[in-house]
User: Which sequence fits this backbone?
């Protein structure tokens, strides 16, 4: 028998097959974009240390009832007013912090019956077991927003010169940190920590009553 | 002269499509790599609440816990909000062991940075969430992200 050359396989339909697979993966792909509010829970502490006494004026209480209504500092408040109320409280600067320094950067009204210093100001939220999760998230969002607005303001004051074109300075700083997560930028980290230190996030959550 | 006569006809040669499969395969591989097949189907209603102060979630170090009312096909589980982990309903007391297991399966250097993603339906009551948080505190998984839709500021 004469040696026959193997006939060439027709590859013309290869593209069709590949297209078919491509379209399948195109359709099934969901580029996920999960976002949310990042919070830290307090660790469980079994020690019986006496909790430090917090002055009433340094405590900003937010209670969410089972019908979703707000009770802020024992007064009824609308959701839309919560953000400003929290900012006013944090930014009051009526006294001194633990080290005896008064808040030089606070722009609040320095009332004697509101918080002494952002260092000392604590927001405490409490909710009922029946509170809708949506309301709970709205409150969280407003309170985080209050902190973010103040941090944004301090970042603007201190570091605007490094980010002349940024829309929001603190956001720009965090984005830069995110972008360079593999090569640590000490200066940037220091700046972010400085802003966080000026406006520390002291947001505590009480456990709902068992009933 | 006859050597060059063919050129005078002026017909365009057909464009070779031989490289088309290569191009398509390249795209195909991209999408194959980028695709995440969902490993669990949701058995609950999951309309997330919205928020505007959101941060991005790092997926490689996240353990998801879902919460909400059982959806239409799973009505036999009642109408009270339930907790779903991977593809099963679990009780509050199982949250701890499940999360510990999931953390254990993560990449070793990410285990200490684990974030618990809470995807909870907005109709759920917040008591369920605080039960979950209590269990997470016992497991010392303290970083929690309340996953939300981005609210457009208006």
Assistant:
């Amino acid at each position: 028998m004469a040696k026959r050359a193997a006939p060439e396989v027709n590859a013309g339909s290869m593209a069709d097959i590949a297209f078919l697979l491509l379209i399948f993966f195109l359709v099934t792909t969901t580029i996920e974009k999960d976002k949310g509010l990042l919070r830290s829970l307090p660790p469980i502490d079994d020690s019986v240390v006496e909790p430090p006494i917090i002055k009433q004026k340094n405590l900003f209480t937010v209670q969410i009832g089972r019908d979703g209504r707000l009770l802020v500092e024992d007064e009824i408040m609308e959701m839309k007013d919560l953000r400003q109320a929290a900012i006013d409280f944090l930014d009051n600067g009526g006294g001194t912090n633990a080290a005896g320094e008064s808040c030089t950067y606070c722009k609040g009204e320095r009332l004697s019956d509101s918080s002494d210093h952002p260092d000392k100001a604590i927001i405490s939220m409490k909710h009922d077991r029946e509170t809708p999760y949506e309301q709970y998230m709205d409150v969280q969002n407003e309170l985080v927003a209050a902190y973010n607005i103040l941090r944004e303001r301090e970042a603007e004051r201190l570091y605007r010169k490094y980010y002349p074109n940024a829309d929001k300075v603190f956001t720009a700083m965090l984005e830069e940190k995110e972008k360079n997560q593999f090569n640590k930028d000490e200066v940037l980290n220091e700046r972010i920590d400085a802003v966080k230190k000026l406006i520390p996030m002291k947001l505590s959550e009480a456990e709902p009553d068992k009933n | 002269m006859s050597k060059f006569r063919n050129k005078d006809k002026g017909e365009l040669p057909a464009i070779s499509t031989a490289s088309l499969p290569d191009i398509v395969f390249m795209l195909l591989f991209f999408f194959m790599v980028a695709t995440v097949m969902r490993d669990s189907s949701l058995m609950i209603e999951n309309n997330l609440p919205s928020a505007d102060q959101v941060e991005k979630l790092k997926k490689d170090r996240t353990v998801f816990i879902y919460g909400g009312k059982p959806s239409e096909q799973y009505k036999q589980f009642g109408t009270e909000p339930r907790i779903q982990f991977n593809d099963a309903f679990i009780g509050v007391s199982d949250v701890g062991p499940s999360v510990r297991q999931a953390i254990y399966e993560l990449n070793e250097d990410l285990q200490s940075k684990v974030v618990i993603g809470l995807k909870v339906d907005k109709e759920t009551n917040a008591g369920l969430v605080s039960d979950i948080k209590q269990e997470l505190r016992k497991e010392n998984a303290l970083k929690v992200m309340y996953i939300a839709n981005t609210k457009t500021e208006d």
About this structure: Chain A has a mean pLDDT of 82.
